[in-house]
Amino acid sequence: MALSLIALAVGGSARALPSLEKPVEVLSRELVDLEVSPGGAVLILVSAPESPAPGLSRWEVGATTPKATCAIQGRTAFSFDRNHVLEFTGIADGTKPTLRVRNATSCKLERAIAANQMIVDADVRGGFITIATRENAVDGRLLHLLDRRDRIVASTAVGRNLELGFAPDGRSVVNFDPSDDGPTLWRVPSLQALPWPAWSRGQAPTFIPATSIVAYRSGDRTALVHWPEGRPLAASILPPDSRLHRVSANARLALITQRGRGQERLLVHDFARHRSATIFEGPPGSIDHASISADGRWIAWSERDSLQEHRVRIHRQPIADIEFRP
Q1: How far is Cα 209 from Cα 187, in angstroms, rounded to an integer?
Q2: What is the mean pLDDT of residues 92-114?
Q3: Between 300 and 180, whose confidence is greater?
Q4: pLDDT in tens, 272-300
Q5: In the predicted model, is pLDDT for residue 49 greater than 60?
Q6: Contact 181, 192 (CB under 8 A)
Q7: Which residue has the higher pLDDT, 4 or 70?
Q8: HEC states along the chain?
Q9: Choosing a second label site near 248 at 20 to 30 A (CA), which of 3, 98, 179, 227?
Q10: Which long-range contacts (CB under 8 A, 24 or more apart) does 216-220 make?
């Protein structure tokens, strides 16, 4: 096999909901990802290059500034379950392509895997790692599955457009980008192509990070169901031209963005009361990422300044402070 292993004032017209807490600022050319915990602490993940302080930091409730957890020098992303940080290094600096897997709470390095080819995407769950590499010998990418000892247990050819993640139950690998023809669901650990569950066929399901929830359109409603059996959880009519990002673990509250008339809005939608609340407005492209805590008590989002290049503000808001309107 080809893979070899080695064990902030708001810029422009942006407007945020009034809050008792002042946002914190970071500098980053790349998108700033974040994750808010049930207690309200926010994990802030800043990627290299062109950031003065790339790495993982933690912003506690009541703190005026985040505290650095560790420095990370490569391109970074959270795993789909948000429990790990994935660090991609190599190629550009002349070193071997390497994936480093870190604990998202402590930033402790847990695994390091090097490859002969560029690693274009990856995810980790339950001891398994899936990696997609760019191969010269095939028209597309190769998808690999590695076990706890970082041994390849299966490989298969895949298309060029990939956004990988493990399904919530860990029993399959999913390509969330359906733009290529061919399989988009593979069994773990064989990487045998799988058919989608009957309830999901023709629905273009959207997997929600850090949950077992999948969303899809059903007429004019957005339905939330449990993976993999498709058990209904909630359904509601979302505002027009909106995109669903995150959902609380009980499928009650969702974070959505809405674009139109030269603006981008961030809203919280209540699936039980069928109401939305706008918490931020700004120019299109203002919002890097948004997160809601598993218990639905906190939200956080990263807002990119439209006037000052690379300046990003991190906002945090308790759900209790948000007023929902009919």
Answers
A1: 19
A2: 90
A3: 300
A4: 999 999 999 988 888 989 999 999 999 99
A5: yes
A6: no
A7: 70
A8: CCCCCCCCCCCCCCEECCCCCCCEEEECCCCCEEEECCCCCEEEEECCCCCCCCEEEEECCCCCCCEEEEECCCEEEECCCCCEEEEEECCCCCCCCEEEEEECCCCCEEEEEECCCCEEEEEEECCEEEEEEECCCCCCEEEEEECCCCCEEEEEEECCCCCEEECCCCCEEEECCCCCCCCCEEECCCCCECCCCHHHCCCCCEECCCCCEEEEEECCEEEEEECCCCEEEEEECCCCCEEEEEECCCCCEEEEEEEECCEEEEEEEECCCCEEEEEEEECCCCEEEEEECCCCCEEEEEEECCCCCCEEEEEEEEHHHCCCEC
A9: 179
A10: none
* Alpha-carbon gap, residue 68 to 300, rounded angstroms: 18
- Nearest alpha-carbon partner for 66 in 302, 295, 290: 302
> Cβ distance 237 to 223 under 8 Å?
no
Q: Using CA atoms, how far apart are residues 118 and 97, in angstroms rounded to an integer?
A: 6
For 105-144, b where at least 16 C-beta lie within 10 A, e where not — what string?
bebeeebbbbbebebbbbbbbeebbbbbbbbeeeebbbbb
Both tokens of 46, joined, read: 């800043």
Residues 12-27 as b or e (16 or more Cβ within 10 Å = b): eebebbeeebebbebb
Check: CB of residue 124 under 8 Å from CB of residue 102. no
Q: Who's near 276: CB < 8 A, 6+ residues apart?
A: 238, 239, 256, 267, 268, 269, 270, 324, 325
Cβ neighbours for 326, distance < 8 A, ≥ 6 positions apart: 275
